[in-house]
Amino acid sequence: MGDIAASGDTYPVFKAAALSQGFRSVHAIPMRVRNRAIGALNLFRTETGDVTPEDAAIGQAMADVATISILQERTVREDAVVNEQLQRALNSRIVIEQAKGVIAQLSTVDMDEAFKRLRADARARNHTMRESAENVINRRIRL
């Protein structure tokens, strides 16, 4: 938008806010991943007019850097979530294995039977396997 003041009534709230801050033009540069736009980098100017081809190229380079940064941050966040989920699963597996050992020892059954008993208890009580395992380990139940 080369001249915010002459933009008509399409975005009256934006127009008033931009003009009140001293901006006279704004230009949106797409932030793309392959052929998909994931956002826009907006360049605000205190003068009216279009951006020069050089400014447009610099703006696109800035948008590309911002896009890469956003994607990297998103990847790091998603990796952290997956790692946390895997760690929880591993911790649950350890508790379940301990409970199987307690059941096998106290009830003199093999590990397969201990697992079946633990699973049956979890289903009967509508608990997770980990909850049932913790109950066994803490001697709140005996299977």
TrEMBL record:
<keyword id="KW-0804">Transcription</keyword>
<dbReference type="InterPro" id="IPR011006">
    <property type="entry name" value="CheY-like_superfamily"/>
</dbReference>
<dbReference type="InterPro" id="IPR029016">
    <property type="entry name" value="GAF-like_dom_sf"/>
</dbReference>
<feature type="domain" description="ANTAR">
    <location>
        <begin position="76"/>
        <end position="137"/>
    </location>
</feature>
<dbReference type="InterPro" id="IPR005561">
    <property type="entry name" value="ANTAR"/>
</dbReference>
<protein>
    <submittedName>
        <fullName>ANTAR domain-containing protein</fullName>
    </submittedName>
</protein>
<keyword id="KW-0805">Transcription regulation</keyword>
<dbReference type="InterPro" id="IPR036388">
    <property type="entry name" value="WH-like_DNA-bd_sf"/>
</dbReference>
<dbReference type="Pfam" id="PF03861">
    <property type="entry name" value="ANTAR"/>
</dbReference>
